[in-house]
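Worked example 2:
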Amino acid sequence: MAKRNYYDIDDILAGQERVPCFLRTDLDGLGSAGSGGSSKVHRNTRWTLPYWMADRLNEEDYLDMQVSPVFSKQANRMYAASPESMQLRAICQHYFQFGLQLGEMVPEIPRVLHDMYMTRIQKIARIAQQGTNVEALDFVQSLDRLEERMLRLCQQSQNAITNWHQNKTYTLKKAPVVDK
């Protein structure tokens, strides 16, 4: 089971992504999770469930969880070919966090995430330094939630550097330890 941060809303939302599953046993009470009228789901049924639920049921051997189409081998090849052109927000708003959760299940996902992140973070840093233009705006609209946070942090850092260069730095304050 993937480690999750209980207090991180983005981590919780990443766990809501649905994954395909194949049921090994009959499950009572799960039918309401799908479109069927009965509350029983029969074995050998293909089903999509939120990752957090599928992961737990997979651990208990009630089902076989399959890789999300977002991280299929074909999708990973597309990401590797052109990481900057991928519209991650449209694919999965929490792409990187969801990928980290699936990383234990599919060993090549962490490498794909790393390579894509390293390429995209360079462009994010350039946009933070140079400002936005039409091309940059398209890229910014494709960022997933983690990348949006990184862009904001890069912009704040760039603003702090600019303020420092213009002698608009913050005033120094005495540390509370010094007053004792």
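Strands lie at 18-23, 27-28, 40-41, 46-50, 63-65. The chain has a mean pLDDT of 85.
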